[in-house]
Amino acid sequence: MPPLGLASLASSLKAAGFHCNVLDFNVRAYREAPEELKSLWEDPASLECWSLEEFPRLLQDKMAHWVERCANHILESPHPVVGFSVHQSSLAFTLEVLKILRQEDPKRTVLMGGPEVYWLDQEMRWPVSLINRKTGKELIPREWVNAFLIGEAEESLVEVLRNIAQRKSLAGIEGVLVPEDSSGSVVRPRIIENLDALPLPTFEQFEVGDYEEPFTRPKLPVMMSRGCVGRCTFCNDFVMAKSYRSRSASKIVLEILSNMERHRVYRFQFNDLLVNGDLPLLKKVCEQLTAAGLRDRGFRWTGQALARTMTPDLLKLLCESGCTALIYGAETFSDKVLRLMDKFSTVQVMERVFRWTQEAGIHVYVNLMVGFPGETEEDFGQTLDFLSRNRSCIQSVAAFSTMTLTYGSPVERNPQKYGVKVEGEHWHRQWRMADGQNTPEIRQERQERLAGLLRELELGVVCNYAYEEAHEKQRKRLTTA
After folding, report:
1. 314 closest CA partner among 349, 284, 293, 292
2. How far apart are CA 463 and CA 187, in angstroms?
3. Which of 38, 56, 89, 325 fits a disulfide with 50 by CB distance 3.0 to 4.6 angstroms?
4. CA neighbours within 13 Å on the CB side: how many for 459?
5. What is the DSSP secondary-structure string of 252-304?
6. 261, exposed or middle or buried, with CB in 10 Å at 0-12, 13-18, 19+?
7. Which among 348, 307, 349, 352 is positioned nearest to 327, based on CA atoms?
8. What pTM did the predictor assign?
9. Which of 445, 439, 442 is nearest to 471 (CA)?
């Protein structure tokens, strides 16, 4: 899908009178890459290739041409300001492009935003992701980036461009870190409270057809809300998004109708952390979508949901409005582990909601996580039993993973509270419990057993690298035995 964040930024700039060009070089490179390279995007096992540690090898072997093309595209542009939206998988690529850009055109203003520069070292006044963990030094010269936009950037980007046009300092703008600002002021992420005040994303800057997936028609992202009502201790999304805020039903439906007409696209995905954070709003949106008769015109939508109590009537309304699937963030089917995670739900509630969702005609997808701190063999067994018992209600597994320490999450920030021992270069994956009851080896063995059960139950896995890897290891172990 086209990136919703960039589309929203482009609409905000247009409404403020600024002209901009949007380049999604990720999809362009994928479309133009030879077949033997497409696995770098398609295979989740290749994600590590894009990391800061591994990308130099990829650059030398396969990606130098694409880095140069992206840099040359920017250099040939007349725009005096360049902005990069950076994610974990695009950081290394971005830095290589930036290196060429700064060598050839050191005077152009460069801005950087996105989730990968969200976390800041306030003393160094620099993003944590751009600091070498071993040496404590910056990965790039400070003068390479004029300002970092932290948090939600639709409003701050407009202010930054206005100040640049008026030759004013960028220091002091809410949510903007200027590396050379020596005032010592703390920069906090910007949060937009009134989401209805934002212009509707139109995706006019994108070739929507470029995002067409094999055997399916293109789809567009949309959002009802930002933030999360949950406080899951393994997650950093609620930390980054701060408070839960929602849009009005009329704005959401207007955006869908407008983009259906503009792009002749009828498949939409709600990119909310959860679509059912505000049940009255969800009901109102579905009522308006149903009243507009969009389902009869081919409109379909999917989204992520909290496994909370929703009535059969509400779920039927979701189906009537065009909902085809909900991805429930279950993670585990042990009540004890759910409490440790600070989940709102219980096994009993999930069992009931999954059944009602399936009976309403909506596919049930679940996220699964192995090895949360405090998970015992008994807890893990309860997850296996639940899946076997409720196979008829579950269409597929959306994501399958072992517990990692996500930067900024409550567990990562306070590991002692959860009995977690952190050590080594790959601490976020190789952590262990201080009492020895949860180790990387134990998590791997449980992951393999879960993969075997999913294969036995014929439950497909959408994000399947960890699943395929674990299943293959289990197969080899059984063959050897």
Report:
1. 284
2. 36
3. 89
4. 31
5. HHHHHHHHHHHH---EEEE-SS-TTSSHHHHHHHHHHHHHTTTGGGT-EEEEE
6. exposed
7. 307
8. 0.90
9. 445
